Amino acid sequence: MLFLLKICNTIDKKIRDFLWGSIEEKKRMHMLNWQTVTQPKELGGLGLFQTRHRNQTLLAKLCWHLASEHEALWARMLTAKYLSTRRLTEGGRNLPCSRIWVACKVGGPAYVKGLKWTVNNGSSINFWKDFWLPCGPLRSIIEGLLHRDEDQLTTATPFALNQETEDSLAWAFSKDGLFSLQSAYLLARGSNPLNLGISSMSWIWKADTHPRIQFFMWMCSHNSLPTSEILGLRGLNLNPICTICHQENESVDHLLRRCNVAQDLWRKLKVPRELLFTFDQLVEKWLELNCSTGAVFDHLGILWKVVFPMGIWQLWLARNKFHFRTSVVDKLIHTKCIKESVEFFAIGAKDWCNKMKKVIRVAWMKLNSNGSALGNPSKAGGGGLIRDHQGNWVRGYARAHGNTSSSIAELVPA
User: Fold this and answer.
1) What is the dihedral of CA 200, 202, 207, 209, to 10 degrees?
2) Domain Reverse transcriptase zinc-binding, which positions (predicted)?
3) Side by side, which strands form the sheet with 365-373?
4) Do 208 and 305 touch, CB atoms closer than 8 A?
5) CB burial of residue 321 (10 Å; 0-12, 13-18, 19+)
């Protein structure tokens, strides 16, 4: 089904508002443009789809089915009606047609871009202009003019593999030659799936941390964190100076590395010696190196690549707490960072230990407890369970509290 442009824009707006937390009553600033957000993750985006291009991709798939199922009744009917000699003329192209054929015409450009010739007898292939090599049309990778004799070489007959079989078309951007939605979407966006390259931002989504912290690091890598300096550049009337140390503009670099609070955190965490040089690198490179290292944190043998993301996240939380709530510097950033790191590491410790040559021993236990009441007040009870550092059940318990309120039952489940 072909979506109207207005419908596509409305859907995109809903997605953007959800991503950045905007509602009708309270608008929020969109920190990154939609074009960047909808890039593949390997290219620095979030991998979201632009509705218009996604719609073109699905319509290109319709064209693929039309070509691959050409013996089916519906395909023969469309081909006979809309690919007749009369329809292929300039005047015939503007004749009224069904919604299905209109949809095929919209998806056609992306479909055609993704086709590649499979050489058999070579008689159907233009040697220079057709897409029959893995790297694309041969003429597109040759600079300058061709000699007259070379330009007259039009067919790929010298490279024929099977003289008795006709050349055939396949999808160029998949291993099995079948249609691929991912590559078709890139073609609809105007990108070349063969020349994407690999962005250094692909490490973000492989980092051993919570998804929300991965998103936070993605924002940092794009220099789009809502700090005072960046918000000032977006047109807000704000003092760009850091309100904590009053020494420099509050940029991403200053917040995470140069501010007195940040320097104090990294000093207390004792950054591994082999990573000290990274603190002079660009922010994106600094984040990547510290999230990809195999170095071990001194405390309990936890990996530094687990501790580091927690550290920058706690700096951001402490900054927001200072700005919007207390105006007092949090003195427990170091403690909170280690606590969160130990808990996160313990959740995945079993899997990580199986992959590591050296087994890391993290000996601690965690208690989860809860309580509830039938009424307020009424009969109440509580219970809990104890798990070890690998998440294995150790012991559980439950008991009655008599008649009490729900709040008391929550407070004393043990």
Assistant:
1) 120
2) 179-266
3) 365-373, 378-388, 393-404
4) yes
5) middle
Structure tokens at 267: 């000093």
Residue 368 tokens, joined: 């989860």
Distance CA 200, CA 208 (A): 16
pLDDT at 289: 93
Percent of the residues in the chain that have a pLDDT greater than 70, as a whole number: 89
The domains of the chain are located at 1-114+191-198, 116-172, 201-355, 365-411
d(CA 114, CA 301): 50
Long-range contacts of 289-296 (CB under 8 A, 24+ apart): 291/203, 291/204, 291/207, 291/208, 291/209, 291/217, 292/203, 292/207, 296/272, 296/360
Residues near 177 by Cβ (< 8 Å), separated by ≥ 6?
Answer: 118, 170, 171
Q: Give the tens place of pLDDT for each residue, 265-322.
A: 999 999 999 999 999 999 999 999 999 988 888 767 788 999 999 999 999 999 999 9
pLDDT at 399 > cutoff 70? yes
